[in-house]
Amino acid sequence: MNACMLRAGLRRGAIELRQSFTNGAELFSHLFWPLLMLGVLWFLRGREFDSTGFMLGALTLPGILGMNVSFGMVTMSQLLTAEREDGTLLRAKATPNGMGGYLVGKVVSVAGGLLADLALFLIPALFLVDGLHLDGGAWLHLVGIVALGMLATLPVGAVLGSVFGDARAQGLIQLPVLALIGISGIFYPITALPEWLQWTAQVFPLYWLGLGMRAAMLPDAAVAVEIGDSWRQAETVGVLGAWAVLGLAVAPVVLRRMARRESGSKVAARRERALQRVL
């Protein structure tokens, strides 16, 4: 990737990020999830997990952060599918170094929006929840997990955005994501679930993102509610790193093949199908 392409991508991403906070619909989406999750924490405040002495709100907050990081995957796939459908991707393909700049811009805008959403949730959440342990080392740990989590999930989102043919089909991805949230220990410790569900959740990055966040933000005694009474930090880095390597290896190949297949006739056909659905 040359310097010109990188500058164009960074500039494009900064413009898209700024527009997402000035457009009414996109601004609503930035505010909706943080406010909804703050409402969840409000109702969990003062509740104890299974007479352990650990507050359920404190156990839940790091998992919600991990869940929000993983939602970058969904956002990336939705944007790629929508812009493939409306011709934005085809226009990028038609310009010199356009695809490289387009992808850099998309990563910048999605990652920037994700970090803003995390801040919108975390800052007020710290005033709602007791029982967290946040020192300098914890914040560094938290930043590292967020960065690794984005590396593990954003390329997967790019792959999914290339695979689905239209926005309507792509919307189906939210169903398995919601199912994973339910079994990944986000809103309730995973040790309370059947063992086969625990093993299923551990295949995917969402559980490990939540675990990494809890390891960063909770006191050492809270490890008693985790699998094997351990934060399993090496396993967390290993699984998230494996997903990152897999995504970074597969995403460029899939995106190149998808871009080669794009044409004006295909974009026109998608628009016609969309108009038929509206009518």
Mean pLDDT: 84
Rg from alpha-carbon coordinates: 20 Å
Which structural class best describes the helix and strand composition?
A: mainly alpha
Q: Could you list the spans in which at least 5 consecutive residues all have pLDDT below 50?
A: none
How is the biggest beta sheet arranged?
none
Counted up, domains total 1
DSSP summary, beta strand count: 0
Helix content: over 70%
Write down the secondary-structure element order: HHHHHHHHHHHH
Distance between the termini: 43 Å
What shape does the CA trace take?
elongated
* Number of helices in the DSSP assignment: 12
- Strand content is under 5%
Features:
mainly alpha, 279 residues
What does this structure look like?
This protein has 279 residues and is mainly α. It has one domain. Helices cover 76% and strands 0% of the residues. It contains 12 helices and no strands.
Care to give the gist of this entry?
With 279 residues, this protein is mostly helical. The protein has helices at 3-20, 24-44, 56-85, 88-93, 98-128, 136-163, 167-170, 174-183, 195-201, 205-217, 233-261, 264-278. It is elongated, with a radius of gyration of 20 Å.
Topology:
Layout: H1 3-20, H2 24-44, H3 56-85, H4 88-93, H5 98-128, H6 136-163, H7 167-170, H8 174-183, H9 195-201, H10 205-217, H11 233-261, H12 264-278
